[in-house]
Each structure stands twice: as structure tokens, then as C-alpha cells.
Amino acid sequence: MLSGRRLDLLDPSPLDVELEDIAHGLARVARWNGQTVGDHIFSVAQHTLLVEEIARRRCGAVDRRLGLALMLHDAPEYVIGDMISPFKAVMGGAYKAVEHRLLAAIHLRFGLPPTLPEETLRIVKEADLGSAYLEATRLAGFAEAEARKFFGVPPELPVRVETDFLKPWPAAEAERRFKERFSKIDSG
Predict the structure, then answer these.
(1) CA 4 to the chain's CA centroid
(2) What is the pLDDT along the chain (188 residues), one digit of tens a residue?
(3) What are the φ and ψ backbone dihedral angles of 38, each rounded to 5 degrees?
(4) CA 100/CA 9 separation, integer angstroms
(5) 136 by DSSP, 3-state: which?
(6) Which pTM was predicted?
(7) Contact indicator for 168, 36 with CB cutoff of 8 Å
(8) Quick one: angle between helices 19-26 and 44-59, nearest 10?
(9) Cβ atoms within 10 A of the Cβ of 167, count?
(10) Residue 76 and residue 89: Cα distance in Å, rounded?
(11) Domains of the chain, start order
(12) Which residues contact 142 (CB under 8 A, 6 or more apart)?
């Protein structure tokens, strides 16, 4: 990692996880394998911020634990990249095991349990699917009917929020905004 840390994929240590590495990596990993409109990639960091925004609007107040769970839901991708869901399914258990070990180490590093409560996972998943719907239809060329089939009902967001969050940002902006939001959530 740029921080100088070395992260063992088979036995990741929370001591080797740094927020700067996560933010930097996620800001440079493309969602949808880069098959999106815009001058910049739509990064996993930007996706994460959209997921957190959707959940916050649905739930109202979000406590530190839920906020961090939302911000870290795709954090392993700073190391292993973002794979499209069909490919993850083909890879099966081996991919999931590596992803789970990384996520557990990341959670421990930031004071979360290795495995989150079901209610937290449900909130994260719903917001993640909502974000995927919006990304698919606004950025990746999906028709509304196709997106509903895969991701369900779209979230309702104000136009200004959709406009901001669904225009791909330069990597430096995505990294900065990710770190700022994470810091705000982490400090309570």
C-alpha cells in the first residue's frame, strides 16, 4: 500500500489497514468495470458515498456504527478491486472467503464487529441496491425495467443530490470527499 503497509490477503491484520489506503484505492477502482458515461470513472468511493446518502435519507439519523458499516461495505475492494456480480458468482467461495477476511480485518481496525448484525446488513444492502439501480440507469446504460429486475425499486432522492452524486468525480475529489465523510462519521 502507499502507506507502506503490507496486507496479507490470506491472513489480513487490522494493524495493516489504513484509512488513507482505503480512500486512495476506492477512489481509483471503477464501478461497472469502467463501462459508464462521463469523463471520469464512477469510483467505488463515490458509490460508497451515494450508498451512505441513500441510507441516511431512509433511516434519518445514522449512528457511528451504521455509518461506518455503510462507508466500509465495499472496503475490501481497495485491495482486490471491484468485480461484477456475475464474475463473483463464478468465482464462488474462494473469492468470498478472501473478501470476508479482508472485511473482518477492516471492521476490527475501525471498532466494528467482524460480522455485523442482520439489521445493519439489511440497511446496507437496501441502500447498496438503491445505489446500483441509480448507477445502472443513469451511468451504465440499463433500461428502467431491467434495473428494477436486478436491483428493485429506485430510491427517491432530490434532483440536486442525484446530479451531484451521479456525475463521476475526478479521483482526487472522490478520495477527499470519502475521507471527509468518514472522518465526520467516525468522530461522531
Answers:
(1) 23
(2) 988 899 998 899 999 999 999 999 999 999 999 999 999 999 999 999 999 999 999 998 889 999 999 999 999 999 998 887 778 788 778 888 899 999 999 999 999 999 999 999 999 999 999 999 999 999 999 999 999 999 999 999 999 999 999 999 999 999 999 999 999 999 97
(3) 115, 165
(4) 10
(5) helix
(6) 0.95
(7) yes
(8) 100
(9) 15
(10) 17
(11) 14-187 (1.10.3210.10)
(12) 136, 150
- Classified as helix, coil or strand, 43 is strand
State the residue for C-alpha cell 481497495.
78
- Cell numbers linked to 143: 433500461
**Measured on CA atoms in the order 183, 75, 166, 64, is the torsion positive or negative?**
negative
Written as one string, the DSSP assignment of 106-127 is HHHHTT--SS--HHHHHHHHHH
Cell numbers linked to 173: 475529489
CA distance 147 to 126: 14
Which spans in the chain are helix H? 19-26, 44-59, 64-72, 77-80, 85-91, 93-109, 118-138, 144-151, 159-165, 171-186
The span from the CA of 162 to the CA of 29, in Å, is: 21
